[in-house]
Amino acid sequence: MDSTGALADLNRALRGTLALVLAGGRGSRLRNLTDDEAKPAVPFGGKFRIVDFPLSNCVNSGIRRIAVPTQYKAHTLIQHVQRGWGFFRAEINEFVELWPAQQQTSEESWYRGTADAVFQNLDLVRRHDPDYILVLAGDHVYRQDYSKLLAYHIDKKADLTVSCVEVPLDQAKEFGVVGVDETDTIVDFLEKPSDPPHVPGKPEVAFASMGIYVFNARFLMELLEKDAIDPNSSHDFGKDIIPALIKSNRVVAHRFGDSCVLTPGAVEPYWRDVGTVDAYWEANLDLTTITPELDLYDENWPIWTYQLQKPAAKFVFDSDDRRGMAVDSVVSAGCIVSGAVVRRSLLFSCVRVNSYALVEDTVVLPEADIGRHCRIHKAIIGAGCKVPEGLVVGEDPVEDARRFHVTDKGVTLVTRQMLEAL
């Protein structure tokens, strides 16, 4: 088939694909950051939310039929998707639909696992009559061209394709690990193994599942119906569905490096599970460096979002005793740095840093207010925090641990509730 015909076939396949962005989980490893909202709704990168990354990947890849199953504390997430992702045209069968958990099965249970989250919405899936179903985790930060993943799935004549990223072997114990042969056919799927298999020819790395799957639609529906009546199943793709398929079906691994959207000059594909406080802090602070690993300024692969219309950031006072300034930092719209110094930090929208304060190596979430004479080092300041005048964070780990949450890597998490308890 010539390239024109192949492209036409791929375009038809993209139109026949339904993407399911699973966004129902809490993300408990983010501690108090998810007390009030699900992990996919947590802010990231100054103006975005984590869920914007898989949604933007879909749009940029040519997938315009998207559903977002939700569950845990979904109000913020639902509001964000409604406001920021309502530009699709239903007349040409484009949509982003929100599927709140509705206890739609006879058991009347909430989602019991990732596979059950899809199973409970099978009636909605069938109405859209897809040829392929793209299952996505709603809580990872990355840029990927799903059209290349889909083309690979079709070319391999697979029943299921699992997108995989290379991770150092000593870190693979934290992931679902995929064992493959020399043709990238999956021969093993292990959840957080103590002795993970390495990638053929690369003994120093393993394939970690990204929680991204392409299924032939009818094949997946039959699988989920069988799994739903299995009393021994936890109804999870990684724990139950995929391991059971390997011996009897065509299950292949797709290398993330073949479909990732690289930052110009980058060598390693960028994918982050920002599921811990340390990982979240590190990924946000990386954006303040001269050449971040994630390029949010790439106009060829934009990350779309919803944000309130706010005035530009403002820096005031320029005298010897107080100077409003930010160096090696990202400062979002609506921020005012008033006679304070900000270094190597990321300020989300509508943050105020008041006179004589010092903020270093810190992520400050929306609408926080840093009081005068505060000194904040290596911290995350939660949304809406009113940090009292003179508070010092990040200099005395024992005192910080008494009042706030301090991670193993020394990042101090401060939330509104913690401050109110002082």
UniProtKB/TrEMBL annotation:
It catalyses: alpha-D-glucose 1-phosphate + ATP + H(+) = ADP-alpha-D-glucose + diphosphate. Pathway: Glycan biosynthesis; glycogen biosynthesis. It comes from the Bacteria. It holds the Pfam family NTP_transferase. GO terms for biological process: glycogen biosynthetic process. It is an enzyme of class 2 (transferase). This is Glucose-1-phosphate adenylyltransferase.
